[in-house]
Amino acid sequence: SLCLLKAMQANKRWWLFYSLCAAAALWIHPLSILVLLGQAFYVATVAIKKNNWKESLPFFISAAAAFALFSPWLYVLFHSLDITKARTAWNSVASVNQQDWLYDICYPFIDLPTTEYFALVACAIPIMQLFAVAAFLYSNQRKPIFFLACLGLIPTLSLMAPDFFLGGIRSFIPRYLFPLYLALLLSMTYLIGRLIASNNRWKSLTGAALFAIFIGFALTSDWLMLQEKTWWNKQHSNYLIPIAETINQSPKPYLLSDAGAGTMLVLSHLLRPEIPLRLLPAQPMEKLPDNSYDIFLLTPSSQLLLELKAKGIDKMTPLDKLGHLWRLN
Fold it and tell me: Has residue 255 got a pLDDT over 80?
């Protein structure tokens, strides 16, 4: 975004930097294409307003160069559509409500356990965002607020639309909302900075108070997180904490699992380092260890259960209420 704004100020060499940054963004996360879409909308709108399409030409050339640098990965995605769909299918299996989106807007500033207090703050922050937009418009700074709107809203609306019509949780995932968070933070920064810099004593004090409040929110959130083993955004892996504690209590454990790489990566940080793991099917199960081991089974698939049954092992004891961890008898 910075390179784009510099380049649009008639600084031609910044178009090269923009092209390289856009390509890097696409390689880091393919959803960056939504950011480029917002930027394209901004550039095209500015060109229409000036009635000069030639000004937008360098942008589209730079964007085309960025996609050319990204083309090897596009080739991989095109030839692996089934895998891509399978890896992202979880995005469409649930649904979110308006309250979830309201909380999402607050996360750049505050992240507390969901209580009435947090709900009250969650209502106050969007109201303050409206004041921030009003501050831009009142100061006649429409161009910056329009750029921030394109940066934050177009990627976010592109995620919200399929959630609204098809169902899913794409627009609820904070890591997908970084463009929105950046736009929210910059607009709020402008509001607070403008108040603090005001010659009016009360406006200046109000700006300083707002700044102190937001710093207080952030530090409180950080302090509460430090007291916990995990947080709400790790909820898909939270069940692994008691499972790891159960396995670690065994004098000589041995863990079998065909769970996904993400699950095993989290679990490996929670287990004692000397505990042996056999990851199936990457490490074929030719034979089981001797009876001196406590053999644990984590989230076994139906295929793994059939393999064990074929080896004459079909007696298992469940060790947690959700049926994630079993001990082989």
Answer: yes
Distance, C-alpha 283 to centroid of its chain: 32
Q: Are 256 and 278 in contact (CB under 8 A)?
A: yes
Cα separation of 167 and 96, whole Å?
A: 8
| 104 exposure class (CB count in 10 Å sphere: 0-12, 13-18, 19+) | buried
Average pLDDT over residues 15-42: 95
Q: By the 8 A CB rule, do 31 and 176 touch? A: yes
Q: What is the CA radius of gyration of the chain?
A: 26
CB 7 within 8 A of CB 14: yes
- Compute the distance between CA of residue 283 and CA of residue 277 in angstroms, rounded to an integer: 10
Say what the pTM is: 0.79
> pLDDT tens digits, residue range 104-123?
888 888 888 776 677 777 78
Give residue 182's pLDDT band: very low, low, confident or very high (50, 70, 90). Answer: very high
Q: Cα(209)–Cα(196) distance, rounded to whole angstroms?
A: 9
Reference 70, options 2, 34, 20, 4; nearest CA is: 20
Q: Look-up: residue for tokens 């989230």? A: 299
As a whole number of angstroms, the distance between CA 148 and CA 230 comes to 33
What distance in Å separates the CA atoms of residue 248 and residue 296, rounded to the nearest whole number? 11
Q: What are the structure tokens assigned to 134, written together?
A: 């009003």
- How far is 192 from 208, CA to CA, in rounded Å? 7
Return the bridge partners of 278, or none.
Answer: 256
pLDDT tens track for 272-290: 999 988 887 766 666 777 7
**Rounded alpha-carbon distances, angstroms, from residue 68 to 37, 84, 309:** 16, 21, 52
